[in-house]
Amino acid sequence: MPAFIRPAVDADLDAILTIHNAAIRNSLAIWTDVEVDRADRERWLAAHRADGHPVIVAEVDGAVAGYAAYSRWRERIGYRFTVENSVYVADAYQRQGIARALMVELIALARAGGIHVMIAGIEAGNSASIALHESLGFEQPVTLREVGTKFDGWLDLAFMRLAL
């Protein structure tokens, strides 16, 4: 399924919100059980724009099928050339190459923006996301055990690194 990858615009926020809240409700991808509102996503998009960090969407037949972004990995100035990526795909578009298309574009934008390293923080049981990141050149994960919790269970966090 071909997807058109483009920068996110304000009109995409409702679709981004739907995808984001579905990930909160139904997955271990976002480690909270508190859904957000549109104002939260408006602030999030504005903050990315202010920081010069891209937010991109995959559009399929006029619908937002997924989105990706990167943001500062840590606040201190010494980390300014390191970012952490996020990529989410709507349930109806899973396993159709949408996440890969988004990540390929996000990596290209990071390289063009002078970023040195991209970090992925993935719930360690998410083998599909780990495999995707490995296929894009991210190093084997380093796992931090039981550093988070959701759905009444402890979660392990896999960190992966891509030198750009």
Structure description:
By secondary structure, this protein is an alpha+beta fold. The protein has one domain: Aminopeptidase, CATH 3.40.630.30. Helix content is about 30%, strand content about 35%. Strands 1-2-3-4-5-7-6 form a seven-stranded mixed beta sheet, with helices on both faces. A hairpin with a 2-residue loop joins strand 2 and strand 3. The model has no long low-confidence stretch (mean pLDDT about 95).
- Taking the alpha carbons of the first and last residues, their distance comes to 28 Å
Contiguous runs where pLDDT drops below 50 for at least 5 residues: none
Q: What percent of residues adopt helix (DSSP H or I)?
A: 25-40%
Main sheet summary: 7 strands, mixed
Structural class: alpha+beta
**Helix and strand run:** EHHEEEHEHEE
CATH architecture, please? 3-Layer(aba) Sandwich
CATH topology name:
Aminopeptidase
Strand content: 25-35%
User: Which geometry do the CA atoms define?
Assistant: globular
Number of separate strands: 7
**Strand sequence of the main sheet, in spatial order?**
1-2-3-4-5-7-6
Count up the helices.
Answer: 4
**Radius of gyration, CA atoms, in whole angstroms:** 15 Å
TL;DR?
By secondary structure, the protein is an alpha+beta fold. The protein has helices spanning 13-26, 38-51, 98-112, 127-135, and strands at 4-7, 55-60, 63-72, 82-89, 117-123, 142-150, 153-163.
